[in-house]
Structure formats: structure tokens, C-alpha cells
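Throughout our pipeline, every protein is held as a single compact record rather than as scattered files. The remainder of this section carries one protein's record, kept here as part of the documentation.

===
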Amino acid sequence: MNIAEICKTFELDVVHSGDGTREIEGVIVGDFLSHILGEASENWLWVTIQVHLNVAAVAVLKELPMIILSSNRMPQEDMAEKCREENIALAVTHFSSYEVCCRLCDLGIGYEGQ
């Protein structure tokens, strides 16, 4: 499933659309940046409640094409700007991180492990 399809299916509030045609190959959820640095893989979607600039920096390092902010968390302006600069899709949802992951799993997108 690609980024545009995920945004449409979840009716996400899109801050930046990124490359809508990019396929998502897995999902990681977490709020500790060190965990994401250690576990995430390229082309995975990241679900978090963290809204600061370092989130975008980690996404760049790990080549994550999309970040979903759960629980109606709104990104800080510097985070949103970095996502625009790096063409990382950034979206907000009212669903909790758990609910987002359950819905993604129902669509066949999940954590594959290493």
C-alpha cells in the first residue's frame, strides 16, 4: 500500500503529502528515538506522539517516508518544515498509536522484525 492510499483510507489530516506513490513495507511504533534508530527499516511508516524536530531527523537517517502523529498531536513548526524539506509524508490522526497499528495490521501492513 502506498502513502496516498494510507492517507485516504485513514482519512488523515495531512501536513505534508510526501511522495504519495511510495510503497510502505512495514510499520514501527514508538516514542523513544533510540528505539526507532535501532529497529526501523527503510520504507517503513512510523507512528508516534513525538512532535519535535528530532523525529524528522531520525526519519531522514532511517529513510522512513512517512510519520503519523497519533492522538491528535500536532507537529512543531520546525518538524513540519523539515518533513517538507526532506519530502517525508507527515499526517495527524485522532486515533491512538494502538488503534493506528491495529488498522494498519488489518490492511496487511505490519512489523516484520529483523
User: Anything to note?
Assistant: The helical segments are 3-10, 33-39, 53-62, 77-86, 97-106.
